[in-house]
């Protein structure tokens, strides 16, 4: 890349970072370029994994955003080539009757990482600032208390050595509507449309107000929110994963390739003449 084009790219990146809405017009990226870049990032995620295991680091990554903003796609690309023993995705269901009487953060605290783990929250304690608040599943006072207390809770986690990263995927009204229609038409995606999703589509501006209040109260110097423009899914995945990697001070752990030993001798072993049920070979 020439100096001029590289400089233009840096300037564009700065403009994107300073966007107020987070919704940015993005050109499509070629599939081949996307696949090459995502593979490079996934190699780095494996290096991050080895560093986390070696140093006993504890990392929490929060992925939030409206329905159809692309949260699942980013998480899927992160998890494709790493170990589920190190990287763990937490997507909690609706609370039980007992959990409704607990402290709000209690069931999320149970999911926090031990040493040598990375936990990705596909929605998190910020449910209280979003769906619970908008849909009336918590009181106005509980919502107010959450916005007041959340920065202190996250500051405590950070003080205990937890690396905390928070991402808000920002999708435009037009693009969300397009994706909802796509889910209705695609039989493999219909399961993604719950009554709650449909209501979130209708109540766009209620969710906008909730988002604004959440960012105003919990975007702190110690625990900032990072906005991920997500109208273009592929660029959102690349940019978000690259930012995660850039935000963690990991180092590559030297790798010593193991040596495969010589296979043992058969010592008169013979495959038994048994009839097995082999699945139909359709391809």
CATH homologous superfamily designation: P-loop containing nucleotide triphosphate hydrolases
Mind describing the biggest β-sheet?
A: 5 strands, parallel
| Multimerization state | single chain
Ends: how far apart? 44 Å
Total helices: the number is 10
Write the CATH architecture name.
Answer: 3-Layer(aba) Sandwich
Q: In the residues, how many domains can be counted?
A: 1
User: Approximately what portion of the residues adopt beta-strand conformation?
Assistant: 5-15%
Feature tags:
Rossmann fold; alpha/beta; 5-stranded parallel beta sheet; 283 residues
In short:
The protein is of the alpha/beta class and 283 residues long. It has one domain (26-247): Rossmann fold (3-Layer(aba) Sandwich), CATH 3.40.50. It contains 10 helices and 5 strands, in the order ααβαβαβααβαααβα.
């Amino acid at each position: 890349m020439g100096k001029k084009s590289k400089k233009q790219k840096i300037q564009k990146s700065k403009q994107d970072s300073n966007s107020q809405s987070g919704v940015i017009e993005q050109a499509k990226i070629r599939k081949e370029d996307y696949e090459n870049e995502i593979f490079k990032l996934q190699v780095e995620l494996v290096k991050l994994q080895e560093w986390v295991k070696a140093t006993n680091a504890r990392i929490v990554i929060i992925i939030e955003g409206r329905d159809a903003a692309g949260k699942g796609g980013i998480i899927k690309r992160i998890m494709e080539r790493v170990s589920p023993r190190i990287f763990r995705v937490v997507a909690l269901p609706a609370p039980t009757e007992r959990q409704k009487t607990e402290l709000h953060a209690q069931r999320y605290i149970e999911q926090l990482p031990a040493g040598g783990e990375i936990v990705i929250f596909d929605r998190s304690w910020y449910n209280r600032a979003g769906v619970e608040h908008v849909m009336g599943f918590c009181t106005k006072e509980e919502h107010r208390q959450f916005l007041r207390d959340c920065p202190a809770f996250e500051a405590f986690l950070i003080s205990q050595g937890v690396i905390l990263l928070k991402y808000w995927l920002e999708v435009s009204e037009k693009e969300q509507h397009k994706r909802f229609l796509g889910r209705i038409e695609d039989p493999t995606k219909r399961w993604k449309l719950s009554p709650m999703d449909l209501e979130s589509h209708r109540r766009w501006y209620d969710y906008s107000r909730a988002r604004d209040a959440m960012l105003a109260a919990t975007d702190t110097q110690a625990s900032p929110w990072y906005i991920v423009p997500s109208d273009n899914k592929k660029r959102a995945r690349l940019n978000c994963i690259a930012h995660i990697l850039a935000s963690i001070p990991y180092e590559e752990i030297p790798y010593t390739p193991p040596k495969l030993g010589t296979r043992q001798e058969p010592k008169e072993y013979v495959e038994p003449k048994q009839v097995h049920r082999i699945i139909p070979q359709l391809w």
